[in-house]
Structure formats: C-alpha cells, structure tokens
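@channel sequence for tomorrow's demo:
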Amino acid sequence: MKKHLKNSAKRVGLPPGTLLHVGELRAAQVSVRQLEYGELDCREQWLDLSELKSCYNPMAKDRVNWLHIAGLHGVSAVEEIGACFNLHPLVLEDILNTGQRPKLDDYGDYIFLVVKVIYRPAAGEATTEQISIVLGENFVLSFQETDYDLFAPVRERIKSGKGRIRRLGADYLAYSLLDTIVDNYFVILEEMGERLELWEDRLIIDPDRDILAEVYSLKTEMLFLRKAIWPLREVVNALERGESRLFRDTTLLYLRDVYDHIIQVIDTVETYRDMVAGMLDIYLSSVSHKLNEVMKVLTIISTIFIPLTFLAGVYGMNFKNMPELEWRWGYALFWAVIIIAGLAMVRYFRIKKWM
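structure tokens (generated this afternoon):
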C-alpha cells in the first residue's frame, strides 16, 4: 500500500494521459502472448515489442486476435500496443494505474473493462490484482499484473476446439474471460467457507490470539471481494443491457448468466461477513467467559479464606491473657474449627451452584 501511494504521488501535476506505472513490480519481465484463431484453426506465439505492429490485421473479420500482456511495469510495451490498436491515452493510463475501481468505458470502436481478481495459487497465499480487458470488433487485449496464467482454461478450450468459443467472435472471448474471473470468486468463497467452519469450532473450544489474527485476515479478503464485486455488478449489468454494438444478442444471454453468478457471490460475501462479525463476538464472549471462570475460582478461594484468615489473625495476636492459648486441646480445636468452617462454605457454595 505504501508503495502504491508513493507511486501515486508521482502523478500529481502530470497532464492526463501520461503513462506511468502505479503499483508494485509483480512480474520479472513483460511478456506478450498472442492467440489468433478462427473456426477451423488457431495459432499461438510469444511476441517481442518489434513484432507488435505486424501482429494484428484489422481486415481479418473472420478471425479473433487475443493478446495477453503479463507485467504492467513495461510502459513501452503498453504504449506500443496502444499505438497498434489505436487506444486512447486515458485507456493506457488506466491500464498502468493498478489502483483503479472496476469500471466500464465505451469508446465506440472498443470497450475498456477494469476488473479485480483474487486467487490462491497452489501452495501459495491469496493474491489480488487488477486485470484490464479491451474488446474490439475482432480483437481482445488483456493486461495482467503478474505472470500467473489465470486464463489457462480459456486458452485450452480455444486450442482444443471444444465448445462454441471458436465459432463465436471476440465478444464471446471477452465474456469467457469475465466468466473465468467470476468463477474464480467461487473457488475463493469455498475456501473461505471451510476456514469459517474450522475457526468457528475452534473459537468455541479454545479461543486464542492466532485465531483472531486469521479471522481479521479473512475479514480483509472479504472486504476486497466486496469492493471488487459490487462495481463489477454494475459493469456486467451495463453490458447486459446491450448498449454496445460489440456484444451480440447471442452473447448477451451468457452475460446474464455471469450477472446471476455475481449476485450469488454478493449474497455469499454478505453472509460470510455476518458470520465473521459473529465470530468476533464469539471470540470476545469466549474470552470474557474464560476470564469470568478464572475470576469466579479466585473469588471462591478468597471467600473461603476470609474467615480462616480472620481466625488466624485473632489467635496470632500477642496478648498475654488469651485463655484459649492455655487449653490442652486448643491447637487441635483451632484446626477443627478451621476445617469445619472451610467445608461448610464449600458445601454452601455447592448448594447455591456457585461452583
């Protein structure tokens, strides 16, 4: 967060459209992968900056060109792609600024989408990042902060020719990318649900500080999900209304399904947020109950020893004329009184169910 704010400060006073990467360096190098396909064939290759100008043929209406750019710190690569596809400078600026809110901008010839994604790589921590998607008539551009292959399932469907993705246009590819992002939310929510069930049981049995830290970590992830999914609902709803000519009616049907999934994710997130709030209450109640039990035991012990301490204090005084001190069985009688008084108080506490 501090790095992000520091980079954001560099933008102060710069003219609109100035290309400056805002965010952390999250990829070792910038990579550009091209997947060009038609109904009968597809071709995949990795591109250098010098090959970007020749990678796109706007006259090939029957083919879809998908460029996936991993690593946003390469300003020159983003600028080169913007020049090749005639993208507005403000679009390029928003792509490089990783602190954007999920949104939709329609520029007529193309649509610009910003979405947020959270995923957990194998044996790794949860990762959040921004993904930008540009949809044109026969091309799709996707910009990702890291080199994690989030869209591998979509790429495999294109290569294998399974389903209808090759027969449909670039709008269906953009839908597939959105659908992959939304479906990934369900994976994260499933993990959250399992963690919630585990921690809820542990909170009741043995609450400790480690569980509290995990609950706050989960609360942070849910906050990110909520901030990412609520604006995305507005984005998909705007696309679903069919206001852009780039989305055909056949694809709008699938967007409605994505919208339904987003609503489902929102409902689940709100439910989990209530559960997390309840878990915090359970933790505080458990800690308070545990403290009360300790105080209860200490109070009972103190109460039992108050009269015993009084008797010991009385007979510990150094007065000369204390007749009990001269009795033969005075010491034994003293202990008898002490024991009987203690047992009587314990019995009384048990009758009152205080212990």
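heads up for whoever presents: The longest strand covers residues 111-119.
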